[in-house]
Amino acid sequence: MRVIVLAVLATLALAGCSFGTQSTGTPAAPKVLAAQGAVPADWGRGSPVPTQVNDSDIGTVFADRADIVGASDTMFESWSEVDETTVAVHFVTGTPECYGAHASVEETDSTVTVTLQTGALPEAANRLCILVAVFGSLDVHLSSPLGDRQVVSG
Question: Please, which residues bridge with residue 48 across strands?
Fold first, then answer.
């Protein structure tokens, strides 16, 4: 009798677990709870100008991904010049196994405005991801040399 009861309970426990993927609709994006709202104090005053740093090798390197799910605008904390037509922006997001970044650029004679978005990778949208804030870096390619133009967060 005990064996039957244990078998029934085990079956019910397994039936309550979901191992499949979502069958209809758009997959839900995981949330980066640890990184949301983590912005330097001067951003609260509306300053879109991040700090320039000398080292472009800061944090985990992310590849630009235009296919991220649940993309949201993300301000970057600092930037560095990689070469005359590439800048690296440095930001906080989730782990690169689950989260990605995408940047778009608007260039004028005096400024380079980088609009950074972060979100879930499509292949990670239906799986569990750890909620750890990661300091990331993303190379952004410019159409003309940076020169003395100011880099701002869009």
Answer: none
**Closest to 118 in 3D by CA, of 22, 36, 14, 5:** 36
For residue 115, with 0-12 CB atoms within 10 Å meaning exposed, 13-18 middle and 19 or more buried, which class applies?
Answer: middle
For residue 40, give the nearest of 64, 63, 74 by alpha carbon. Answer: 74
Burial of 111 (0-12, 13-18, 19+ CB in 10 A): middle
How many CA within 13 A on the CB side of residue 125? 17
* pTM confidence score: 0.68
Q: Which residues of 44-58 are buried (b: 16+ CB within 10 A; e: fewer)?
A: eeeeeebeeeeebeb
Taking only the tens of pLDDT, the chain with its 154 residues reads 444 444 444 444 444 433 334 444 444 444 433 333 334 434 454 556 789 998 767 889 999 999 999 999 999 989 999 999 999 999 999 999 999 999 999 999 999 999 999 999 999 978 888 889 999 999 999 999 999 999 999 8
